[in-house]
Write a structure and sequence with these properties.
alpha+beta; 7-stranded antiparallel sheet; 5-stranded mixed sheet; about 45% helix; rod-shaped
Length: about 475
């Protein structure tokens, strides 16, 4: 089942069905228990009425029993013999004995409360009931279910058993029943109504759930269609419709549009990067080709140093582009522990032929270790030194210090500095603030972009501000090594 609407409708219907079945069973059980309890109470009332008559010494054949058709009564003695039954009782079960005929040897109680053969024995020291009056057991009676046949009709009954003692000291048990027909009929009616209404209710639940889910998922279908159109047209400038609600679907649409915006910006950066890279590569390649063609036709005119310079510049540009491609692909830096003070000294020592010799300041040589790729961090520091050397007038300073759980490398110069509104733009690829200067002097505009990407990949940052000398201060911060 691939439809969310169908799964939702089926799930809701199943849950409601289980809930209704459970609730229905609970209602039936409670109803049956209440009705059975009422029948037991009626049976107890009849049993205690008969037991009260026996306690007063009423003879067995003179016992008054009300509603004998609905409330059959059976009286047994301690030996289980039947001493009295209600009128027209033909069969009984659930009372301990199924006999409905009084035992022939059982004599009815005498009007004075004594039974024949039950005279006083002076040698018996046991307790005797009061003369002329017995007693009825006040304990909770025993209940049981059974059947009784009265005047040819058999029905289920709830029997209550109450014990009584006659004035003569005989213990008898009165079994009185109450019909369970009302309980059976009520439970059956409720069960039939539930079975008839359950399918209808489930159909209604399924239909309502289907319609509600369909309405709720309609914006999702609109988002899906628009995304399919974007995929087919490859036009990432399009956006999915955002519903006016504030639910999860509206948040999904907004997140999708934010993703499309980021994707459009990424695609635009990629296109600009390819265009700028093609432009930057075309110049040295064209210059190198021209020199080689001139050299091939006129060897005496070959500018070999210029050809070598163009080749070196082309090689450096290719290396920069390759590094940016690896960084964009998510290449993870190494986990080598490096001393940034030593790394800075190594980079400065390679620049013996630069126009301005950098000054290195390391106030505290301890605790300057960071974790990362030596090659990438050296490249980032070298790019910062190249940028400062191109813009410095007379001085260039490099300082390494501990700062807020990390290590900061600051490269400052005494040049013109970077305007505040251009301090983020300088880190974009192929950006040169001084467009009038030559490419040979200004570079391709990738050094600072590479330095920031390296800093971010290492969990650090690269920012630019004002130097005390009046120029620019580029600060590379990296987290300290564990």
């Amino acid at each position: 089942m691939r439809s969310v609407r169908a799964r939702a409708a089926l799930g809701a219907t199943a849950v409601v069905a289980l809930a209704l079945v459970g609730a229905g069973l609970a209602v039936l059980l409670v109803l049956r228990a209440n009705l059975t309890g009422q029948a037991g109470l009626q049976a107890e009332v009849v049993a205690r009425e008969v037991a009260g008559q026996l306690a007063l010494g009423v003879p067995y054949d003179r016992l008054e029993m009300r509603d004998e058709e609905d409330h059959p009564v059976q009286v047994t003695d301690e030996g289980g013999r039947v001493v009295a039954v209600s009128k027209d009782l033909e069969a009984i079960s659930g009372t301990g004995t199924d006999r409905v005929t009084p035992a022939p040897s059982t004599a009815p109680a005498s009007p004075d409360g004594s039974a024949p053969g039950s005279g006083t024995d002076d040698g018996d020291d046991g307790p005797r009931p009061e003369p002329g009056r017995g007693e009825v057991d006040s304990d909770e009676p025993d209940f049981d279910n059974g059947t009784a046949t009265v005047d040819g009709e058999t029905a289920d009954h709830r029997f209550a058993s109450v014990r009584a003692t006659t004035p003569a000291g005989t213990t008898l048990t009165v079994h009185a029943g109450a019909p369970l027909a009302a309980e059976r009929e009520a439970v059956g009616s409720v069960r039939t109504a539930m079975l008839a209404g359950l399918p209808v209710l489930l159909v209604v639940v399924a239909g309502v759930t289907w319609l509600v889910t369909r309405r709720a998922l309609r914006p999702v279908e609109g988002i899906r269609r628009e995304m399919a159109a974007i995929t087919a047209s490859e036009d990432v400038s399009r956006r999915v419709p955002e519903p006016g609600s504030r639910d999860e679907i509206a948040r999904l649409a907004r997140t999708t549009n934010e993703t499309l915006t980021a994707l459009e910006a990424s695609v635009e950066r990629q296109r600009r990067f390819v265009a700028d890279a093609s432009h930057e590569l075309r110049s040295p390649i064209a210059s190198l080709r021209t020199q080689l063609e001139v050299g091939a036709a006129h060897p005496e005119l070959l500018d070999l140093p210029g050809a070598v310079a163009d080749t070196v510049r082309l090689q450096a540009l290719a290396a920069d582009l390759l590094l940016l491609a690896r960084l964009d692909a998510g290449e993870r830096p190494g986990r080598t522990t490096l001393d940034l003070g030593v790394l800075v000294h190594e980079e400065v020592s390679r620049r013996t032929g630069d126009r301005i010799a950098p000054t290195v300041r390391v106030p505290d040589p301890d605790g300057l270790e960071a974790t990362g790729s030596r090659g990438q961090l050296a490249r980032a520091i070298g790019n910062l030194l190249d940028n400062a050397e191109r813009h410095a007038e007379h001085a260039l300073t490099v300082s390494v210090r501990r700062e807020r759980g990390g290590v900061a490398v600051a490269v400052t110069d005494d040049g013109a500095g970077v305007p505040p509104n251009e301090r983020e733009r300088v880190f974009e690829r192929f950006v040169r603030l001084d467009d009038a200067r030559s490419r040979d002097e200004g570079g391709a505009g990738l050094g600072l972009a590479i330095a920031r990407d390296v800093a971010v990949r290492h969990g650090g940052r690269l920012t630019v501000g004002d130097a005390p000398e009046g120029g620019a201060c580029f600060e590379l911060w990296l987290p300290a090594a564990d």
